[in-house]
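Q: What would this chain look like folded?
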Amino acid sequence: MRVAVGIPVCGPPSWGLLRSLLALGPIDLLTAGTPDRPWPIPVARQRIAEQFLAGEWDVLLHLDSDALLAPGTLVRLASWGRPVVGALYFSRHQPIMPNYCQQLADGRFYVPIGETRAWLREHAALCNSPAALLTEPPVESLAPAYLTGFHCLLVRREAFADLEPPYYRPYEQNDPVGLKCDRYFCESLQAAGHTVHVDRSVVAGHIVGGEAAIGAFDFMAYDSITDWATHSWRI
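A: My prediction, written as structure tokens:
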């Protein structure tokens, strides 16, 4: 399996990201933009996808420049054999919540707060580090997602074959969770017959500055003092 890692250039990389890349094993790095003149994210991602499709790679691992990965993340995401699988990760700003959405039968979106809380209580090892991996992934680790972000998202080459370029562009309608071009990409995939999944056996950390990163423990701590119905703190 030939792997390309695509990261839009949005400034200098963190040491956490560099360590994560070194731990991935043999990869090729695709970037777009420069630190002093970054491109808009949809444009950068499109250029990265074009480089990927022009090459002979099998898998494109989308990463954000503030991602922190546990060793084994790439192998775990690829092991499911699905066309599109992302790691579970959490927003780095309040409200700290899972960065993926599901859709109800009436078309409304919801963030699976309760499901994620129950999952982490059952698999507390994921809270030991901002970037974490379960040694033995339960079968139910894969959760279907209506949309998720590119923070750590594995896309196989065959998924692009069913899409029309441009693959990434800003989402113009009301976006309830602020995922923008991420949502456009996910909806295009589903319109082409693909299912987007989030692998809850692996958590990608969200770097917030220096060596600090947001992970599952931070979500559980925030959840413990938050009334999600009124979005107020219970303290």
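The mean pLDDT is 90.
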